Amino acid sequence: MTSYALFLGCTIPARQPNYELSARKALAKLGIELVDLPNMTCCAPPPVQSIDLETSLAVAAYNICLAEEADLNIVTLCSGCFESLAMTNAMLKEDEQLKAKINKILSKAGKEFQGSKEVKHFLQVLMEDVGLKRLKQSVSRPLSNLKVAAFYGCHALRPSEFLKLDDPERPSLLENLIETLGAESVEYRNKLKCCGGLLRGYSDDLALNLAREKLANTTKAGADCIATLCPFCFVALDIGQMQIKAKFQETYDMPVLHYSELLALALGIDQEELALQTHKIKTDKVLSKIF
Amino acid sequence: MKHRKKGKTASPEFYSVVKSRLGGETITLCYQCGTCAASCPVAKITERFNPREVIRLSLLGERDEVLTGDAIWLCCSCYNCQERCPQKVEIADLMYALRNIAFKEGYIPNIYSEFASAILDNGRIVGVSKFVEKKRPDLGLPPLQPTGVDALRKILSATGFDKLQQKKEGA
User: Fold this and answer.
1) Which of B70, B79, B117, B131 has the most A C-beta neighbours within 10 Å, making it the best mutation to test the interface with A?
2) Would you tell me which CATH number, out of the four given (3.30.70.270, 2.60.40.10, 1.10.8.190, 1.10.1060.10), belongs to the domain B14-104?
């Protein structure tokens, strides 16, 4: 059995049991074991990088050290965690000087970054350890008739120099994974543009305007739902719809589901086990097309 | 484009301060083509942010305008510009470098001050409430593992992160 250290991050355990449940149950069903390691911390995502880049590298490296000590590769569900950890891992592996600098900081916490492990996004585990063929065979409830708008967000793909998940301008990974579940992946304008999530709290106005464009474009394309990979994109597009309604008097009523939730449903996992009530925009429209 | 206020002294050495910071190393490679601005989702919807302009002002030594203005905080960190820059200027990282300098000088937006406090206090940006933690078994989730707050504090002290936050009082 393939095992990974699950890097859960902050936002998922705080607010999105729907993401955690669906990912845990789907991966278990696909034969991937997740290990919860003690003493992990914040991953040091863009908000921390904004305060001090050196600190963010050290904090990310500290968390990788925990996985190295447990002799496990890391899987992340959140794209913010993925960016922070995978970027740090790649940077320190290729820059001895930087590694020495960060290790000097880590020594205060009794750690030393070795560079012996990989950091993978949830999607990479599906592609590399399960594969589209086996994934397709595992689907017991095909999502036929469902039109899904793939939304990558930013930090699963970029900076591609370090993340290497897929082509940053023309990715196809998520679309392929959606179609493997029997659903149709629909194209829409400005698919790769940011959800605005990281501007929330600093400039809500601009953040909502960015999210609003995604909702307008996916609606126009006839999507039944948007598939996300990141808890920040989920917040921006799901809860964001309530705020957009209040601010701009626009109602989209567009369900937003994490890819893992679509996957769990397609694998036949009971919808009652997935905490779908977490969604602000009800998922009933999607469920009625599946069941 | 905003113009320099009359009588304000530029700091011609500012670009070298930026260049010496992690993330700022590539600033002098910029030849102002504007690919970044054309790729920027934020610049499309507001005049308050234009990555090309932030770089130009920094190279011109307009230190105060860059560090005290809100433009550097409006980058949404999407990395579109960085992917497309023909000169390989690491623009998104450069915005971090500028924010890092601003933070160090005490120009700290409230939300970032809150982020810093949250990490120092709980080891996490978004805390998990006791209520949410208690509900985990009912939802079928395993218990949460403890957060490595002690180790994190040692790291934050070694990089001076804990002291950065104290400066906000004088900002």
Assistant:
1) B79
2) 1.10.1060.10
